[in-house]
# Entry
Amino acid sequence: MPKLKTRTAQAAIGVRDSRLTPLVLVPGGWEDFSLIDSGAGRKLERYGETLLIRPEPQAFWHPAAPDLWRDAAGEFLGAEAEEDGRWRFRDARPEPWEMGYGTIRFRARCTPFRHLGFFPEQAVHWDFAAARIAARRAEGGNSPKVLNLFGYTGIASLIAANAGAEVTHVDASPRAVAMARENQALSGLDSAPIRWIVDDCLKYLAREAKRGMRYDGIILDPPKHGRGPKGEIWRLDEGLSDLLLACRAVLGERPLFVAATIYAVRASFLALHQALAGALSGLPGEVESGEMALAEQAGGRLLPTAIFARFRGK
Ligand SMILES: C[S@@+](CC[C@H](N)C(=O)[O-])C[C@H]1O[C@@H](n2cnc3c(N)ncnc32)[C@H](O)[C@@H]1O
# Structure
């Protein structure tokens, strides 16, 4: 009985556990993009010269500079979870427009899915991948092989190729791959070694493992729900552990990196960290994890966007 009392007291006080300390990753200055303000369940962003308002359920606070919101060219109306939200524009709907990240060029567009065809907070992984690839290139030897899973419009693929990797980009949607190829041309990377694959990510990984293909780096940003080109159902909650093990099966002995991001699910960085660390156990390197966020200009707050875990090879 006295033992039980002691335990209860300890639990009530809480014990600081230093095994896993979260990082908060925030992209640095980016000329063509900024989060200007957020609050009251919305965010005001600048994409090139276009100001747009989108729903942001985590903006629990008040906007810091309400006057700035009047300049927005459009707003996406509808809650985060709604499929039938829509854009409303002050003037005509803007045609897709060009933006840049360093030397990489790509088109932004107001998609029916609320976003602009890319995810600015991913810049932290673009830089990470580019730095890891450059470090391996500096050691000499062959170009690192990088796999971009659920690669969508391909910015991560272009950045990895530009840094000197041979890239395999996999996405279920021929339309997404077509947009990625347009971005390749816009970036002047037509002759860069990128294989564009329309396939289901899990099926593709299984085939690559069978063929004995090995990669040095993997970027994966699996959606909550998705479909392969033949209607294969993807559900993150059921499929993530198999996906991570399938990634492990195609990694070489001394991988450079794996960067995994998860959006819009009720999951903690602790869960993702342990899933990735478990899948990659035995490989030389370390897993770090935490949240990704965007720094707001007007109020200086950090707006959380996703959780991540990433492996940094030794
Ligand atoms: C949220 S986007 C990924 C974002 C992207 N990584 C980026 O940073 O821009 C989701 C992508 O996953 C693709 N997708 C969904 N289910 C898939 C599957 N089973 N296999 C391959 N791609 C899939 C979709 O076509 C879509 O392009």
Remarks:
- The chain has a mean pLDDT of 94.
- Residues 68 and 267 are 33 Å apart (CA to CA).
- The longest strand covers residues 302-313.
